[in-house]
C-alpha cells in the first residue's frame, strides 16, 4: 500500500490507522498548493480530485475519500479492532461517526475556517454557531465514554484526533470543551498516535 498524504491534514488519520494496526505502507508527501508529490510527480494523475488521502492498494486500485480509506485499512487488519466487522450494528455506528466528522466537523467547520476562499461571514458562522454545536454534541457523547464507538479505539477516533489537532491553528480554545480537551490529550499519548503526529509535525516544520 502507498499512502499519499499532506502533513497534519486529514490523511494523518490513515497514518494513525496504519501504525495502530502494525501495517506497513509507503508514504508519499503531496504539496497541495502545487498538486505535486515530493518526487515531482503530478498528484492529479493519482487523484484527479487533488485531495489527500489517496491509497494505492497492492493490486493497483486507487482508493480516495478518507472514510473509505480508513475502513479499507481497518478491514485489512481485522484483529486490530479498528473497525467493527461488516454487518455488525457497530459498523454502522462507525460510519455514522466517520460521516459526522467528515461532513459536519472537517468540512463545515474547519474547511470554512481555513480556506482563504470562504467569505468572512461564513467563517463567523462556523466559529460561533457550527463549531460549538458540533463540539457540544461530541462532548455529550464522549462524557461517559472512552471512544466514539464501542469500548476500544477505532478509525473514527483516529479521524477525530486529527480534526481536534486543527483547533489550535484555527485559534479555537479546546479547553472550552473540557471533555474533548481531556479526550484529545489522552489519545495523543497513544504510542501510534504520538508517533504519527510527531512525524508529521516534523515534516510540516521542514516544509
Ligand atoms: N472528501 C475528501 C476531502 C479530503 C480533503 O479535504 N483533504 C484536504 C486536506 S485535509 C485536501 O486535500 N485539500 C486540498 C484541496 O482540496 O485542494 C475526503 O473525505 O477524503
Major sheet attributes: 5 strands, mixed
Helix content: 40-55%
Q: How would the global form be characterised?
A: globular
Number of strands: 5
Residue-averaged pLDDT: 98
Number of helices: 7
The percent range for strand residues is 5-15%
As a whole number of angstroms, the C-alpha radius of gyration is: 17 Å
Counting helices, strands and paired strands, the structural category is alpha+beta
Structure description:
By secondary structure, the protein is α+β, with helices and mostly antiparallel strands. It is built from seven helices and five strands; from the N terminus they run βαββββαααααα. The chain folds into two domains: 2-81, 3-Layer(aba) Sandwich (Glutaredoxin); 89-192, Glutathione S-transferase Yfyf (Class Pi), Chain A, domain 2, CATH 1.20.1050.10. It has a five-stranded mixed β-sheet, covered by helices on one side. Helix 4 crosses helix 6 and helix 5 (155-164) crosses helix 6 (178-188). It is globular and about 40 Å long. Bound molecules: glutathione.
Amino acid at each position: 500500500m502507498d499512502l499519499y498524504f499532506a502533513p497534519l491534514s486529514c490523511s494523518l488519520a490513515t497514518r494513525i490507522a496504519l501504525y495502530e494496526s502494525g501495517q506497513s505502507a509507503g508514504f508519499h508527501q503531496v504539496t497541495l498548493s502545487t498538486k505535486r508529490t515530493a518526487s515531482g510527480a503530478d498528484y492529479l494523475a493519482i487523484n484527479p480530485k487533488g485531495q489527500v488521502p489517496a491509497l494505492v492498494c497492492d493490486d493497483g486500485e486507487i482508493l480516495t475519500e478518507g472514510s473509505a480509506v480508513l475502513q479499507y485499512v481497518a478491514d485489512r487488519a481485522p484483529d486490530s479492532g479498528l473497525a467493527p466487522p461488516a454487518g455488525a450494528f457497530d459498523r454502522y455506528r462507525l460510519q455514522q461517526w466517520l460521516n459526522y466528522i467528515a461532513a459536519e466537523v472537517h468540512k463545515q467547520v474547519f474547511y470554512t475556517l481555513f480556506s482563504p476562499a470562504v467569505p468572512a461571514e461564513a467563517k463567523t458562522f462556523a466559529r460561533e454557531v457550527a463549531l460549538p454545536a458540533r463540539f457540544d454534541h461530541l462532548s455529550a457523547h464522549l462524557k461517559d465514554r472512552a471512544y466514539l464507538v464501542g469500548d476500544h479505539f477505532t478509525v473514527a477516533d483516529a479521524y477525530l484526533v486529527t480534526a481536534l489537532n486543527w483547533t489550535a491553528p484555527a485559534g479555537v480554545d479546546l479547553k472550552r470543551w473540557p471533555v474533548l480537551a481531556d479526550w484529545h490529550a489522552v489519545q495523543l499519548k497513544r504510542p501510534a498516535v504520538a508517533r504519527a503526529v510527531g512525524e508529521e509535525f516534523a515534516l510540516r516544520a521542514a516544509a
